[in-house]
Amino acid sequence: MIAVIGLLLGFLISALFLIQGKRRSNGDHQDKKKRSSNEPAEVVKPKSYSKSEVSEHNKRNDCWIIIKDRVYDVTSYVEEHPGGDAILVHAGDDSTDGFFGPQHATRVFDMIEDFYIGQLSQ
Predict the structure, then answer these.
(1) How far apart (Å, rounded) are the C-alpha atoms in residues 122 and 25?
(2) Which N-terminal stretch is annotated as signal sequence (predicted)?
(3) Which of 64, 73, 66 is nearest to 120 (CA)?
(4) Which band of pLDDT confidence, cut at 50, 70 and 90, is reported for residue 80?
(5) Is the predicted pLDDT of residue 41 greater than 80, yes or no?
(6) Integer Cα distance of 57 and 63 in angstroms
(7) Backbone dihedral angles phi then psi of residue 119, each to the nearest 5 degrees
(8) Given the DSSP bridges, would you call strands 93-94 and 58-59 parallel, antiparallel or unpaired?
(9) Is 92:43 a contact under the CB 8 Å cutoff?
């Protein structure tokens, strides 16, 4: 039963990253487009979040997940998720195992970075 849930969660998270490209919640990608190719990229230290901070973001309208100690805000994708509410199973928690399941295309690993907001503090 756990394996089925894991596979389902993995499939759903992969779908999340396939569709999310144009539904990004913050405007960082717009800033990158505006920057000329001659300007150096700004180096910014990632924000750090505790597990308890992440755990507060566990709802449909406020959904964060953790993948390999990196924090992602996937709120903008929840309503578009092809698997419905399955994405909420690990909302506010670690989704690493489901994300790295065999059901994901390699493209999803690049797409997740659009949702990156910071690191999990130790």
Answers:
(1) 26
(2) 1-21
(3) 66
(4) confident
(5) no
(6) 5
(7) -105, 155
(8) unpaired
(9) no
Residue among 122, 99, 120, 104 at smallest CA distance from 57: 120
Q: Which residues contact 19 (CB under 8 A, 6 or more apart)?
A: 77, 80, 81, 82
Neighbours of 60 (CB within 10 A): 13
Outline where DSSP puts E strands in the chain. 47-49, 58-59, 62-67, 70-73, 93-94, 116-120
Q: Is 92 left (phi over 0), alpha (psi -120 to 50) or beta?
A: left
Residue 71: half-sphere exposure toward Cβ, Cα within 13 Å:
24
Tokens of 64: 């964060």
Report the alpha-carbon distance of residue 55 to residue 58 in Å, rounded: 6
How far is the C-alpha of 4 from the C-alpha of 31, rounded, in Å? Answer: 40
| Structure tokens that stand for 43 in this block | 């180096």
Higher pLDDT, residue 116 or 19? 116
Residue 113 vs residues 2, 5, 16, 38: alpha-carbon distances, Å: 27, 24, 12, 23
